[in-house]
Amino acid sequence: MRIGIAIGGPLDRIGAVARRCEEAGFDSLWIAEAGRTAFVQAAVAAQATKTIRIGTSIALAFPRSPVITAMAARDLSELSNGRFTLGLGTQVKRVNEYRFSTTFEHPAPKMAEIVDVCREMWDAFAGKPIDHRGRFYTVTMGPLFDAGPPPGPIPIYLAAVNERMLRLIGTKADGFLGHPFTSPSYVKNVARAHISEGIKAAGRSDANVEIAQSVICSVADDDEAARAGAKPQIAFYGTTRTYKPVLDHHGFGDAIEQLRAAHAKNDMEGMVSAVTDEMAETYAVTGTAEEARAKLQRYEGIVDTVILNPPWIWSGTSRSDAYDRLIETFAPNR
Fold first, then answer.
1. How far apart are CA 147 and CA 144, in angstroms?
2. Nearest to 279 by CA among 233, 332, 212, 242
3. Do 29 and 5 touch, CB atoms closer than 8 A?
4. What would the pLDDT profile of 146-174 be if each residue is shown by its tens digit?
5. Strand partners, 7
6. Per-residue pLDDT for 106 more than 80?
7. pTM for the whole structure
8. DSSP 57
9. Residue 80: exposed, middle, or buried by beta-carbon count in 10 A (0-12, 13-18, 19+)?
10. Residue 192: how many CB atoms within 10 A of its CB?
11. Which of 11, 67, 180, 275 is the 20 to 30 Å CA partner of 232?
């Protein structure tokens, strides 16, 4: 099982963190799109490193033209000398509509077409004519002549929680990016099952799809402090109905209404109090360094790559301190 790490934060610090992770022996760096664009952060990490894999986990698919996405990925592949992975996600309906003023429609078919357009555009950079006339996009004009093809194939990984997107991954993608709000059981018995259905339907093999799973990881000097660090992150994710199947899978489905009610009142303490110790143990890797290393092994044999995510919601810990903890605890070269 390979170990990657999610990084982010101020742009003037990303390069140093990326270099530390590379020197520590981590397999990959993964960069989310939240307050900052994933592609700019990935560019900073690419310039600061030489060998480590770099991926977006995730870049938003729908607010951008797929051609713009393909161009950015092509540039990042060039900048990193072929180390870049394009990780895409749909985000949820409310965020698309009210933050990005983007229509949220038929997410799985639309994402499938975005994957097609990206790959066709990369072929067009190599001189192949493009004539895409799809349900959502029409692209019949190739790129300008000042950029050639990427240095090699650009893998496309997709984020998914529910059945249709998971099946799409098996059918069309190079990898699965599991949401941090999950568990080994959900990955094994739900995510992998639906991905396998897609793989079988497309006549592919399991080797065609990497399973890369993000994990909320809170390391502290004692168990209670570690769980306390993870609970706000779980509470934050648990307010979103899209993730209810993850709660239902372990019998915690009733918690979502309590979480949403507290969130509507801006009652952060109420949200956190709705997350039990059992939920924290289920949806996060927590504990002292030794305990956290042992708990991470729950994913062995279930995923190909685990992506460590430090809690960032109301954690009371600075990003730099959180990275220090994760690097010191999990660095393959420690």
1. 7
2. 233
3. yes
4. 899 999 999 999 999 889 999 999 999 99
5. 31
6. yes
7. 0.94
8. S
9. buried
10. 22
11. 11
